[in-house]
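Table S2 (continued). Query chain:
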Amino acid sequence: MKEAQRLNISKSLALYEEAKTLVPGGVLGARKPTDFIMGEYPIFLEYGKGCRLIDVDGNEYIDFLCGYGPIILGYREEEVDDAVIKQIKEKGFCFSLTQPYQNELAKKLNKLIPSAELSIFLKTGSDATTASIRIARAYTNRIKVMRCGYHGWHDWCVEMKGGIPMKYYEDVFEFQYNNLDSLKNLMAVHGKETAAIIMTPFGHHLHQKMQEPKPGFLEGVRGLADEYGAVLIFDEVRTCFRLRMGGAQELYGVKPDLTVLGKGMANGYAISVVTGKYDVMMAAASKLFISSTFFPNSDGYIAALKTIEILERDKVLDNIWEKGKRFLDKVQKVLDKYDTGAELSGVAPMFFITFETGDAELRRAKRTEFYTQMIRRGFFFTPHHHAYICYRHTEDDLDLTVSAIDESLACVKEKFDK
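Corresponding output:
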């Protein structure tokens, strides 16, 4: 199989060199070039529409990263954008007081999310996970936290500890997804001091295969929280409005005390939520301070209300699950065709292709070759993060992607068989 031609990304690279004189490292966080494949992936994008992206050099891609998750419908979704533009032009969106859309959205969440009774609105997933921990600590008058999964960039949970004193995270302990014993052992030691157990109910750890919960795992976590009087928090930033309208808690039938929402709810507009049981949430009314100038901005509320309307009206999640299942079945057949160590994990709306081998260097090399071939063919994935399917991915888009996966794995096979 002939390798695909390297993309021309000269303008992206030039902008990156300029950016390094203006921004520390040029680009920060999960968007920095080293989180992709340096020299192969674009660094700056020009625009997007539907499920397609155009970079500053004019290269076009079918996108599966979806802004790291918020794009559930598609880029520049006209109904959503028009509703927000109308709000901005006719009523405004940033005031000293709250507009009534707060109540409208909170009532909508109460109908959709099994655990929702009261809600607090914020801007980012990190804002919301951190607020949920503060609420749990205030409610229980305890300090310690058991965590499983990625929960943002704030001091208590970020993986890179630079600039953070140890005292800010010394009371936070990590347990393993689908390993109930790891949590049992931690709770046996710290349970009486534990304020919260926070976890992603669907396993999507960075750089690792995705996992659905094993039978009894989520129920076991719920039982341990009840046994020790800890607040159970589901971080459903990625899973709610994607796996189900009510999130993984609806799909798997286990209800937490608090739920964190974000990506997908407003199709790219900045809004996040902590929602949950009345008595736990009421700690926020009297025992702590949660506030920001921009938390009440109504552009996010309007975008969320319109996005949820479309999700319900057009049965968007049914569409994503149906075409996603067909797509993943085809992808699995391609992976079975080539003995490369490629593995498919996840579910129809969110999935990941990883490489398994006993040799870490070989695994990384195969991964790099595969995703290099995919980006050169015009398919935007990342080697280090799972992919998403959005509403605007068509069957033709997905079939083209299957063909590109086939060609890319053929290149991996040929290169590493030699």
